[in-house]
Amino acid sequence: MAQSFRSPGHGGLSRIGVAVCHGFTGSPVSMQGWSEHLADAGFAVNMPLLAGHGTTWQDLGRTPWEHWYRDFEAAYLELAARCDTVFVAGMSMGGALALRVAALHPVAGVALVNPGLTFSDNRAKYSGLLKFALKSVPAIGDDMKLQGVSEGAYARTPVAAVHQLSQLFTDTINLLPRVTAPTLVFRSTVDHVVPDSSLDVLQEKIGSTELQVVSLENSYHVATMDNDAPLIFSQSADFFRRNLHAI
Questions:
Q1: Residues 201-224: pLDDT tens digits?
Q2: For this structure, is 191 an active site residue?
C-alpha cells in the first residue's frame, strides 16, 4: 500500500534531515528503499505521499501541481522545524519538486535521480488542449531493467495531469538560477521516460557551482528500485555527510 514514510533519525545524524519525493503517477513505494537506507544510517527522513497519488489516476487528473509542491514543501518544513540541517532528494517529477524547494528554501544539498524538467513526447506541449478530448494515455510506470519489481504506478496517465506537470516544469526551470546548494544527480544512460534534455536544462540553468553527475549504467528510469539502487543509496548518504555545513 502506498503511504508516506517518516523516521526521527538516531545517533549523531538525528538532527540532519532528508525530505524525499517520489515521481509523477508513482508512489512512495519507489523511494521506500532509499528512505529506509537513509533512516538506518541515522538521518531523519520525511517522504510524503503527494496529492492525487496512491488513489486513482482520475484523482490525479483533478489535482493541480501546486498541491504536489505543497505536500513536499510541508515535508521539508516539518524537518526544518526540528533539524539543524535539511537536504532534499527526489526522482523524476520529485526531482523537479526538490529543485523548487531548493530554490525557495535554504537546503544544504540536493540529490536527484533522473530528474524531470522536459518531456520526451512532443504532444505534452499540447496537453492543455488535448485534455478536453483525451482523458488518459498509457502508463509510464515501471521503467526498470530489473525484472519482477513494481513501483505501484497508475495503469493510466491522465492528460490533465500532464498539463499540470508541464506547468510545474516551466515554473521550476525559471527558478533554477536560485538553486545554489551542492547538487548530486544520478542519471541512467538508458531512460525511457525522461529525456537527456532535462539534464541539459539543469546543467545550463542551475545556480549551483557544485553539480556532480553520476552515470547509472545498469538501470532505467526508476533507478531507485533497479540494479544501481545500492550505488544511489550509498553515494547519496556520503554526499549528505560531506555537505552537513553547506549552508
A1: 999 999 999 999 999 999 999 999
A2: yes
**pLDDT given at position 246:** 56
Catalytic residue, from 136, 221, 226, 236: name it: 221
Active-site residue 10, yes or no? no
The residue extents of the domains of the chain are 5-241
If pLDDT is split at 50, 70 and 90, which confidence band does 120 have?
Answer: low
Q: Which three cell numbers stand for residue 116?
A: 524531470
Residue the block writes with cell 538508458: 190
Q: Dump pLDDT digits (tens) for 32-47.
A: 999 999 999 999 999 9
| Catalytic residue, candidates 191, 198, 228, 236 | 191
In the CATH hierarchy, which top-level class contains the domain 5-241? alpha beta
Give the active site residue among 7, 30, 92, 188: 92
Q: Which long-range contacts (CB under 8 A, 24 or more apart) does 117-126 make?
A: 117/169, 117/172, 117/173, 117/197, 117/198, 117/201, 117/202, 118/169, 118/194, 118/195, 118/197, 118/198, 118/201, 119/166, 119/169, 119/195, 120/192, 120/193, 120/194, 120/195, 124/162, 124/165, 124/166, 125/166
